[in-house]
Design a protein that fits this description.
heterodimer, A: 188 residues, alpha+beta, Arc Repressor Mutant, subunit A, 2 domains, three-stranded antiparallel β-sheet, 8 strands, 13% strand, B: 246 residues, 6 strands
Chain lengths: 188, 246
Amino acid sequence: MATGGGAGARFQLPEIHSFPPFFTRQPNEDTWKEQRRLWCDLVVAFCRHHRRSALAVAEAVNEPPFSNPRIRRALRVDTLREVVDELVSQGHAAWTGPKGSARDTCLVFWRKPEVWAAMLHQWAADRGLCNTVLTLYELANGDDTADQEFHGLDYATLRRSLEALQSQGRAQLFAGSSDEDLGVKIFT
Amino acid sequence: MRKAVGIGGLRRREAERLALSRKGSELARREIEKLQEQVTTMKAKLEAFVREHQRDIRNNPAFRVQVQRMCQLIGVDPLASRKGYMAELLGVGDFYCELGIQIIDICVATRPVNGGLIDIDDLQQRLMQRRLRGSEPVVADDIKRAISQLGPLKGGYLIVEFGGRTMIQSVAREMNADTTTVLGLAHQTCRFSVDDVHAALAWDDYRIRACVDDMIRSGIVWVDAQTAGMPDYYVPSFYSAASKRN
């Protein structure tokens, strides 16, 4: 996962990231649970720092943080899948790709869609933009949202957040020809 | 004295014996009184000393250790009761109590990673990190005392010494001699492989693998399977202590 549009400061890797066994799936189940917890925390923090969400498992293991070239260790693909499965169960990730496909790509929610949903709703209410149709593009890239944390958010996460808002009965989505064109009306 | 014979003699010998034993008791009693006086004086002097040097005792671990040894020699245990006068004088009653609680916290927090076996250096480093700046420094001796004073909370906390190194075990378990020996091997490098154990101890494969499996089952080692050759087994607490030292 290359860095992209993140904070200026470098991401601080935790001490355990230099511990070679951290990259081997531990045989002791209790130890593994702790290892997995540490990886989950690391993934979420890393994604939050770089404001990145999309993860392709097979490629990701070749790059930081899943690979540590300094100690010549890298997580195996099936281990990373186990980590993502745990994130999914916590609501911090979702497998993407066609239903029934191998778990290859996922979205990491470094902030949960429900939380984004609340922020979007608040913003719409504050700007008096409820009950008007807005596009995903406007929400992610418009001048009106320049000062908002969800500005620059990837479309996939934004879409999921709006879907969450819709299932709460607080918005209505209108399909467009592409994600960018996706329209939403946020209710008061 | 003329040797006594007959009943009169018996009675006289009886009277002498009584007189002597009374004298003996009196002597003994006088000696005991003198001794008691000396002990009281010594205690008073020790108290005065401790009062005068209270701050140094709290802030200087080496000095604190010496004073405590002195107390022990005189037969005064400053920690015997938290409300004891010496504990209050030394002002250390609370110190060891707080330290004990901090130790438990750290052991519980690190248990998922180190399986409840923590190197005393690792523990000490974490204590120093955790304690507020300006609070008293803590040395290995303090840790050992704090643990011995845990009282009802002590259950399962055991100090394991091997080859001059010390670890604290916070999970009740049977730690066999083979495990302790292998831990001793790993202390410098933080890790070991089956080959390392074989080279150092000439154990047979079966014995080494049984020991390793036991250590994995106990959660006290992590496996690194990405080595060039055989896997390495790491003791996380050793690694943690060493990495902080560097």
